[in-house]
């Protein structure tokens, strides 16, 4: 008999009932150090007092009206995002998947309105993850994501990661945009080098096409800048955002330049819940915290400390780990042992990590992780690695 919850997840035998900053409390009382943060969602940890206050205040005033009317918190959050990014305009969604859907529509509508309706193709890359909607799986293109779900949405080309010659050759008169994650998350914490991102921007400008960045996982302070592309000194035309922007509350957004968004006029897109008062109130609180001048330098400092300690961990356990990769507090441990064995050994050592492709475990802690918690995380990962070595 099928379970009452559709069985699409391979769940760990854990039931967390409470969160406190960087910690998760299991139903049996055990305290786990959380280096997953809900897969980069709880960017400010669990039950951050300013987020709780923002949500509680808004919940006591108004939960939902609809986008038929003006929503003050939505306007406030859009203004904050425009002020701190490349964007001229913002559309709010509930998730990264929804952001992907709009990004694809926006790029195609841009060229339709520009008198180039043949420009519908979007170039994406091996190892990518852009959500599990029809557009998202078509963009990723992997058999794991698409098998059994055909016919797939047409208009996507898939290239190997880092294949520059193939990229240049793939752009033709039907190309609308390049879609890429500055750091692949599900693909195994693979950062795109700054010079490659600058090259992509230059190529898009040369060919007259759009650059879409998926910063759903790597954005909102995760790398030590508000958004990861800032390290390369370039800007996209369209950007997908979610996860950390809501600090745990379902919230996403598409940010765009005025030119890229020019086709999206009244009636071309909508959302029942996107930009609702509750989500935007929390999003405003998140933005106020991460844009404080002292916050992101602290993220970078802690990221340096954590990476240094992880390099020592890898050196101490060469049978289990191979290398550290990533940027900021979006880090990965490339494993020699099966990565799921490492994740499960971590559970036994009371630490939460997240598996990814390429035999990697992801370390995506709250950006508010303390120095003492960094030290404790290495202790627990060391305990997990030792258990694998002696098994």
In summary, what is this structure?
The protein is α/β, with parallel strands linked by helices.
CATH architecture of the largest domain: 3-Layer(aba) Sandwich
Count of individual beta strands:
17
The percent range for helix content is: 25-40%
Rough shape? globular
Number of helical segments? Answer: 12
Biggest beta sheet attributes: 7 strands, mixed
Give start-end ranges of low-pLDDT stretches.
none
Q: What would the average pLDDT be, to the nearest integer?
A: 97
Task: Count the domains.
Answer: 2
Provide structural commentary:
With 391 residues, the protein is α/β, with parallel strands linked by helices. It has helices at residues 37-40, 49-59, 72-84, 96-113, 134-140, 143-146, 164-170, 194-207, 277-290, 295-316, 339-348, 371-390; strands at 16-20, 23-26, 31-34, 89-93, 121-125, 156-159, 175-180, 183-184, 190-191, 210-214, 238-241, 252-256, 321-327, 330-335, 351-352, 354-356, 360-363. Helix 3 packs parallel to helix 9 and helix 10 runs parallel beside helix 12. 49% of the residues are buried. The model has no long low-confidence stretch (mean pLDDT 97).
What is the secondary structure topology, with strand pairs?
Layout: E1 16-20, E2 23-26, E3 31-34, H1 37-40, H2 49-59, H3 72-84, E4 89-93, H4 96-113, E5 121-125, H5 134-140, H6 143-146, E6 156-159, H7 164-170, E7 175-180, E8 183-184, E9 190-191, H8 194-207, E10 210-214, E11 238-241, E12 252-256, H9 277-290, H10 295-316, E13 321-327, E14 330-335, H11 339-348, E15 351-352, E16 354-356, E17 360-363, H12 371-390
């Amino acid at each position: 008999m099928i379970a009452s919850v559709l069985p699409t997840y391979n769940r760990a035998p854990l039931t967390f009932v409470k969160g406190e900053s960087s910690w998760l409390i299991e139903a049996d009382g055990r305290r786990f150090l959380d280096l997953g943060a809900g897969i980069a969602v709880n960017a400010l940890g669990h039950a951050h007092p300013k987020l709780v206050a923002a949500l509680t205040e808004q919940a006591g005033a108004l939960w939902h009206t609809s986008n038929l009317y003006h929503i003050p918190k939505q306007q406030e959050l859009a203004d904050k995002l425009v002020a701190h990014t490349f964007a001229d305009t913002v559309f709010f969604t509930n998730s990264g998947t929804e952001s992907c859907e709009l990004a694809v529509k926006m790029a195609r509508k841009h060229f339709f309105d520009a008198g180039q309706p043949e420009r519908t193709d979007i170039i994406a890359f091996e190892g990518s993850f852009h959500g599990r909607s029809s557009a998202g799986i078509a963009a990723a293109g992997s058999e794991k994501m698409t098998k059994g779900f055909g016919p797939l949405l047409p208009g996507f080309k898939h290239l190997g990661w880092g294949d520059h010659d193939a990229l240049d050759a793939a752009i033709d008169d039907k190309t609308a945009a390049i879609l890429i994650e500055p750091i692949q998350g599900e693909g195994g914490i693979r950062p795109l080098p700054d010079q490659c991102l600058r090259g992509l921007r230059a190529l898009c400008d040369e060919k007259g096409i759009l650059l879409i960045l998926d910063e759903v996982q790597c954005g909102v302070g995760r790398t030590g800048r508000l958004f990861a592309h800032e390290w390369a000194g370039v800007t996209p035309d369209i950007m997908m955002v979610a996860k950390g922007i809501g600090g745990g509350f379902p919230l996403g957004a598409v940010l765009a330049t005025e030119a890229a968004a020019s086709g999206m006029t009244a009636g071309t897109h909508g959302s029942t819940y996107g930009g609702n008062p509750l989500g935007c109130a929390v999003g405003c609180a998140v933005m106020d915290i991460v844009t404080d001048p002292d916050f992101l330098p602290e993220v970078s400092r802690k990221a340096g400390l954590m990476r240094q300690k992880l390099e020592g961990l890898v050196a101490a356990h060469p049978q289990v780990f191979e290398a550290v990769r990533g940027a900021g507090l979006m880090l990965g441990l490339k494993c020699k042992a099966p990565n799921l064995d490492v994740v499960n050994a971590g559970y036994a050592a009371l630490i939460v990590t997240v598996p990814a492709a390429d035999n990697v475990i992801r370390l995506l802690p709250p950006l508010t992780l303390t120095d003492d918690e960094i030290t404790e995380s290495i202790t627990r990962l060391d305990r997990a690695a030792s258990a694998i070595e002696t098994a």
